[in-house]
């Protein structure tokens, strides 16, 4: 016998899950860097502190593209329009893996007592035609690069050591040039909204990595003022 109730759509289910705070859509983040000559020492330190010490960290070799879409504001001028940023990442070492579409919100620094940066973060597995789909939506590619590095896990926390490469004029992942003489180090944790206590957990772990690397809250607004 058919039910008289309307089927629940995927959007309804997602909205309900977000309101119930069961989806990890908030990223707590600290960042820093370590020069190439000291990277091995930090690598060994992380291997000893993190999970799966015997097997070692995961490795990654990814190609990431950043797209922007101008969000129109009623009554606003083109200069006042805000850019909506989306990132697309694919695993070059595992082409069989799904591509990843990521939305990152504006970083919130909070007051000086807040231990980490906080930003909205939503990851979606997708197919390779996502680039064509975003282009048809009006998104414009702003920049792209290749990352090679290591992924460590400590409970719910994630630590990445990433070497960032500039793509050559041929735009081929095979023609790479290191952008800096250092590794980008990121300590992050995804959690549902309202679990701000995890920021203290991140701060405690970051202290254990000093003085090899100083992980801090990065104020992106100050960086933009220098560009």
UniProtKB/TrEMBL annotation:
Q: Cite the entry's keywords alphabetically.
A: Activator, Nucleus, Transcription, Transcription regulation
The listed locations are: Nucleus
Q: Which InterPro entries match?
A: Mediator_Med18 (IPR019095)
Alphabetized Gene3D superfamilies for the sequence: Hypothetical Protein Pfu-838710-001
Alphabetized GO MF terms: transcription coregulator activity
Q: Does the keyword RNA-binding apply?
A: no
Instruction: Provide the Gene Ontology terms for cellular component.
Output: core mediator complex; mediator complex
Name a single GO biological process: regulation of transcription by RNA polymerase II
Which Pfam families is this protein grouped with?
Answer: Med18
Q: What is its main location?
A: nucleus
Quaternary form? Component of the Mediator complex.
In UniProt terms, what function does this protein have?
Answer: Component of the Mediator complex, a coactivator involved in the regulated transcription of nearly all RNA polymerase II-dependent genes. Mediator functions as a bridge to convey information from gene-specific regulatory proteins to the basal RNA polymerase II transcription machinery. Mediator is recruited to promoters by direct interactions with regulatory proteins and serves as a scaffold for the assembly of a functional preinitiation complex with RNA polymerase II and the general transcription factors.
* Family from the record: Belongs to the Mediator complex subunit 18 family.
Q: Please report the name of this protein according to its UniProt entry.
A: Mediator of RNA polymerase II transcription subunit 18
Q: What is the lineage of its organism?
A: Eukaryota, Metazoa, Ecdysozoa, Arthropoda, Crustacea
Name of encoding gene: EOG090X0CKJ
